[in-house]
Amino acid sequence: MARGKIQIKRIENQTNRQVTYSKRRNGLFKKAHELTVLCDARVSIIMFSSSNKLHEFISPNTTTKEIIDLYQTVSDVDVWSAHYERMQETKRKLLETNRKLRTQIKQRLGECLDELDIQELRSLEEEMENTFKLVRERKFKSLGNQIETTKKKNKSQQDIQKNLIHELELRAEDPHYGLVDNGGDYDSVLGYQIEGSRAYALRYHQNHNHHYPNHALHAPSASDIITFHLLE
């Protein structure tokens, strides 16, 4: 049975259109491969689907650039000239922008001022004054933050010191304050939290004088306190 003639027009159904594109693309690439093998031809095919997806075929032992260069030589058409001119124009603009930026930096350092007229010098002066103002404001704000942080740290240290002095005063008034019957060489332990570590104040046990008969008993004092800092 003979195949019906297919009408050549755009396929409206997107799925069918994609399937047809894939099949015919593969058939075209197969024919290009056959031409390369049978006829020793150099073939280059570049295709873009409706979604701008690139598909290409190039004969073995050659490149797309070599094919385009050969085309330019044979047809006497310069494919790259327009693109090269655009690249050169972009390069010139970038170099000019870079030159202006370098000049502006030098002028803000007090260099290259001779080429400026009085109006340009005034504009530069205003810009520099505004910049200095912003820098000073930022500096004062940073200093203020550091001062507040230091004040808070000092206040915390003062509170800790007051608490320690208060505990020592209580211990001086009551010799039995905070005693711990642990049978060791220390009769009391005080603990304080100091910025990430704990400080422990230990007092020597006063009943160890049986080792030293001639040692006189005395009331606890600040000199009997040993403080250890334990890192956590």
Automatic annotation (TrEMBL):
Annotated localization: Nucleus
Broad class of the protein's primary localization: nucleus
Keywords in alphabetical order: Coiled coil, DNA-binding, Flowering, Nucleus, Transcription, Transcription regulation
Nucleus among keywords: yes
MADS-box domain: residues covered: 1-61
A Gene Ontology cellular-component term: nucleus
GO biological process annotation, one example: positive regulation of transcription by RNA polymerase II
PROSITE patterns: K_BOX, MADS_BOX_1, MADS_BOX_2
Domain of life: Eukaryota
Keyword Transcription regulation found: yes
InterPro entries, per the entry: MADS-box/MEF2_TF, MEF2-like_N, TF_Kbox, TF_MADSbox, TF_MADSbox_sf
Domain K-box: 84-174
Molecular function per GO: DNA-binding transcription factor activity; protein dimerization activity; RNA polymerase II transcription regulatory region sequence-specific DNA binding
Coiled-coil stretches: 84-138
Name of the molecule in the record: Floral homeotic protein APETALA 3
Native source species: Raphanus sativus
Chain's gene name: LOC108859485
